[in-house]
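Predict the holo structure. Ligand: 2-amino-3-ketobutyric acid.
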Amino acid sequence: MKKILIIGSTGQIGSELSARLRSIYGVENVVCGYYAPPFPDGFFEAGPTVEIDALRIEQIADAVRKFQIDTIYNLAAILSATAEKKPQLGWDVGVGSLLNCLDVARDLKCALFTPSSIGAFGPNTPKDNTPQDTIQRPNTVYGITKVIGELVSDYYYDHWKVDTRSVRFPGIISSMTLPGGGTTDYAVEIFYKAVKGEIFECPIKAGTFMDMMYMPDALNAAIQLMEADPAKLIHRNSFNITAMSFDPEMLYHAIKQHYPDFQMVYKIDPLKQHIADSWPNKLDDSCAREEWGWKPNYDLERMTEDMVRKLKMKNKK
Ligand code: AKB
């Protein structure tokens, strides 16, 4: 049975990934690394936890030794818009924490999952059906750290056979923990406004298409890739994956099927718009499909229905 350490387990992905991994591998075999509050309800009671600042390599190494970890999910992240505002923090967390995880993974023989992003592409990348292997010249701090992450992870695999694997996540939509500081966050925030009956001010222009994915598919992707037969992996860092591509109008109309009176107005955030304009409209994820069987379950309609149902329940509590 795997022994897993999640770094950044209280964030948007980490909070749901930890529960999913525990349901598969057993509570005792999944250790939740945390850095700072807020902690989800019951966080410390749900299973083993350990305080980890991903910028301190000895804390990662100590946790790996103490819990006899063989697989690390490094989810420590500063998302795209925040990294533009706080570039030093963006570099430190984006590159520093990954280098620490790579060194620990090499020295203590762990497999390592690291998320890359659609942010690893830039304005010169083909926008439609963006190929797996293509131009990657991002013009954001976040994007540059993602490209460095992909290259350096492949380097550790090539030179030291560290089992590094990664996906380029699109915007992730989820009902449990809010993202923060991302360009795609609007696609989560809009649901909270709709369910509360409030007007949504959309920071991204109509006609701006980006890849998106519902959280259950994002969790499947990470776990399925880490379980994939290494002999079948031609690529490693990092795989294009997507589940849907929409612009704000399409999402608004999907939500209006559930809330006909819902209103959205545009209040463009120039920074987020600039970042979104540099990202692809829709990725080609055929390599992930061929090499490890990637296949999403949620399209725009199914995701919207489930988000509305879950947030309605959350609102009632
Ligand atoms: C962001 O918007 O920064 C992230 C991402 C797509 O990587 N959600």
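DSSP finds eleven helices and 16 strands in the chain. The pocket of 2-amino-3-ketobutyric acid is lined by residues 79-80, 117-119, 142, 169-171, 179, 182-184 (CB under 6 Å).
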